[in-house]
Every structure is written in structure tokens, then in C-alpha cells.
Amino acid sequence: MVKDSPVIADVLPLFVEFIEELPLAGHNIHSFDMKYIYRDCEKYLGMIPGNDYIDTLYISRKCLPEMAHHRLTDLAQHYGISTEGAHRALKDCHMTQQVYELLKNESELVSSGAKTIPVCERCGKKMILRNGKFGEFWGCPGYPGCNFTINVRKNKGLI
User: Fold this and answer.
1) What are residue 153's phi and psi, to 5 degrees?
2) Assessment of whether the complete model's pTM goes beyond 0.85
3) What is the C-alpha to C-alpha distance for residues 20 and 108, in angstroms, rounded to an integer?
């Protein structure tokens, strides 16, 4: 698939220019991607980028300790995100972004000392705090297969 693609030495300067000083995000970026970025930047550019990064693998282990595995596809399935086309770069980027947004919400709840994150009464998945037309509500991550919701205003003890 990549045999006719440009070599890393040619595209790396473009990548570094593109990312500027912005934080990077990825699933297992700490143990995998950053090692290659650091290695190749030092080898071809004589520098190591100082970008911060966010690793959804580590966030998922903190927020979802009950999950047996924390692979990107497992997290996507947990949140009801399509995994069709997984393991292709662009699809994995989209899945990582969607997973990150949902994990960020859960992480904020865990950090704030939230009393309880409810579990869907229909399918057993941990609910996600969402914003809708009428304010905040707990929604099942299994949507559209499962559309169970809990009204936050009526269940204040759950936040």
C-alpha cells in the first residue's frame, strides 16, 4: 500500500511544520508513535519535538478499569462507534478522536469526584453525560441500538 509513497526523510519536515507546537493525540501514542517520531526527528532533523501528547489508552485504563481490554476497537465498540475500516490510518484517527471526546467527559466526572456514573438499565453499559436540546442527560453509549437515557435534572444524585 505504501511502496510508491514518499520516504520519511522527505515528509517528516512537513509533518513537524504541520503539528507546530500543538498537542498530539493518539491511542498508545506514548509507547508506540512517539518513539518513532522522536527517533526519526533526531535522525533526519537533528531535533526532538517538544509537543505534549494525549494517550487515549492511558485515559481509558483510568476511566474504564472494568474493561478487559483497552484496544481502540474495544473502546469504539464500548461507545457504539463504528469500527468498519479499522486499522486504516484515517479511520483510526476518526475513531481515536471520537473515543477521546467520550473519555474526556468520563475523565472529568472521575476527577470531579462524581458520585455515580449510571449504568444503562437495558444493556449494562456505563452511561455518558451528554448535552442535548433540553440540557444535560445521561445517554447510553450503545445508541442507536440502545436509546436509553436518564434526565439529569430528575436524577441530581447521579452527577
Assistant:
1) -60, -35
2) no
3) 27
